[in-house]
Fold:
Amino acid sequence: MSVVLASRKGAIARSRVKQCVAWCFTLLGFAVALAVAIVAPSPAKAATTPYDLVFGLVGSGNGLYAFMLVVLMVCYSLTPIIALVSGRKGAGLERYLARYPFRIAVGLALCLWNVLGDVFEILPRPFFPGPAQIAGAFLEDSAFILHNTLYSLRLFAVGFIVGVFFGVSTGIIIGWFAKAYYWVFPVLKITGVIPAVAWMPFALTSFPTPFAAAAFLIVICEWFPIAFLTAQGVRSTPKQLYEAARTLGAGQRTLVFRVAVPHALPNIFTGISTANAYAFATLVMSEMMGQPGGLGYYINSSKVWSAYYKVFAAIVVMAILFSLILKITERVQRHALRWQRGLIQ
Amino acid sequence: MTQRTSHRIETATDVETDVETATEKKVCVSLRSVAFSYSSIDAQPTTVLEDFNLDVHQGDFVTLIGPSGCGKTTLLRLIAGLEQPLVGDVVFQGQHVDGPNHKRGVVFQQGSLFPWLTVSGNVAFGLKSRGVAPSERTSQVAEILDLVGMSAFAQSYPHEISGGMAQRVAIARTLVNDPDLVLLDEPMGALDSFMRQSLQSLILQLHQRLGMTMILVTHDIDEAVFMSDRIVVMTSRPGRIIESLPVTLPERRMQRDRSSAKFFEIRSSIMTLLSDISA
Ligand SMILES: Nc1ncnc2c1ncn2[C@@H]1O[C@H](COP(=O)(O)OP(=O)(O)OP(=O)(O)O)[C@@H](O)[C@H]1O
Ligand SMILES: [Mg+2]
Structure:
C-alpha cells in the first residue's frame, strides 16, 4: 500500500519536474531574444508624441520590442503557473507542454531577425527592418495606427453584420421557395465567382461616401458564399425530419426556423469562414484604393515615404486582428455546433 | 415506481373493459374505399392501394402485416395525413383528414430525431411548436422521459445514445403530445431481439396506461401476436386486406405466453396466410 503510494508520489514529482523543464524550454527562446535585445540595443528613435506616455517606460523601439518579449514570456507562463498552483493537470497543460519546441523556434527566429535586421543591419534596407524598428513604428505612430485599426475594424464589422444578415436571409428564401431557387440561384452562382473588388469602380461612384462603398464590397464578399451555402443546407434537409416535425404539430414557421435553419447551420458557418477570408482581402485592397483611413490606407501612405517598417507594423496588426476575428468566429461556431461533436471528425 | 405503474395499469384495464361491456366501441379512424398511387415522372404510376377499407376502434392495438412493398407504410402515411388519397376518404374521429396533426402521432422506423436537439429538446419539440408554456413543458418532458426510462439521458444528443434508446425517445416525443392515435412504422425493425422485447413491453405498458389507439406495422409475426388486439394481413399490388384476425388469447396482453399452444396456433395461421400470398 505505502509502496504504491510512494511510487505514485514519485510519478507526480517526476511529472512536476517535466512540467518545469517544458516551461523553461518554452521561455528559453524568448529569453535569448530578450538578452540580445538588452545587450546589443539597436539605434532606434526615442518617443516623440504625447501618446508615447503610455509606452513611457519602454522609451525606444528596442525597449518596446524587449517589453513585448517580456509580455509574451509572462503570457506563456500563465498556464503552467495556474496548473502548479491548483495542482490539477488538464488537457490545456498537456497541449501547452507539447508546444514548447515551436515556441523555442519562434523565440530564436525573433532573435536572429533582430540580430540581422536591427543590430548588424545586414538585411536589405529599408525593405526589411528588424523587429525593434517595427516596434518603433508603434511608438512613432501609436495614435495613427490605433485610428486606422479602428477604421478597419468598423468597416469590417459593418460589412460583416450586414453581409451575414443578407446572406442568411436570402439563403433561407432561396432554399425554401422552389421558385426563388429557380430564378435566383443561377444568378448567385455566376455573380459569386466575381471577386468583389471588381465592383469597386461601380461602388465608388454609386455610394455617397468611400466608407459606404467599401462596406458594400465587404457585404458582397460575405453575402454570396453565405447565401449559396445556406440555400444548399436548407435544401438538403431530409424529408423525414420535416415529416416528423409536421406530425408533431409544427407549422410552416417552425419548419423553416426550427428544422431547416438548424440543419443548415453547419453550412452557414462554413459560408462565414469562407467569406471572411475574401472579406479580409477585399477590406485591405479597397483601403489601399481610395479610403481615407484603415490599415490598407496606412500601408499605402507609409510606402510613399519608403517607411517599410511601418508597412510591417500594419501587417503585424492585421495578423493579430484577423486571427482574433477568426478565433472568435470559431468559438461561436464550436458552441453553436456542439451537437456535432463526436458525430463528425 | 414499478408497483405504482402496474397498479395504474390494472385500473386502466378495468375501466376499459367496463366501457367495452357497456357500449359498442367508437371508431377512431376509418379508411373508406381509398385508392392511392405514387406518381412518378419516368415510369407510369404504380397503384399501391385500391378500394381499401379499414376501421380501427378507439383504444385498440391493431397490427398490419404483409409482404414487403404491399403498402403498409403508405397506409400509415395516408392516416397520418402525409399523403392524400386519390380516391376515397380517410376519416379520423368523424373528421376528414387533410394534413398531419399532433393528435395523430407517428413513430418512424429510425433516424427521425433532430440531431441538433438534445433528448429533452427533441421531446419538447411538439410542445414548443404548439406554444405550451416553458414551465409546463419542462414538467411534461421530465414525466414522459421517466416513463420511457430515458431521464438519465435527457441532456444527451441523439448520436450519443443507442438505437433502442433513440426509439424510446422517438416514442416519448410522440406521446408527450397526448395523441389519440399513434402510428408505429416498424419501430423495432433495426433492433436486436433483446431490445425488441423490452421495447415491445414498453409500448404495451404505455398503450394500456395512456389508453390511446395504436397501429403498428411489423414484419415479425411473434411481435404481432404478442402485442395486438387485432392483426390485419395485407397482400400486394394492389394492397388489399386478405384477413382481419382478432387475437383471442386468455391471458392479459402483458402476460401473453409466447410458447403456449394457442399463441402458436394463431402464429401458424398467419404464417400460412403470408406464405399463400407469396406463392
Ligand atoms: N415515394 C415513392 N415514390 C414512388 N413509389 C413509392 C414511393 N414509396 C413507396 N413506393 C412504392 O409503393 C409501394 C408500397 O410501398 P410501401 O413503402 O408502402 O410498402 P411497405 O409495405 O411499407 O413495404 P416494407 O414492408 O418494405 O416497408 C412499393 O411498391 C414502393 O415501391
Ligand atoms: Mg414500410
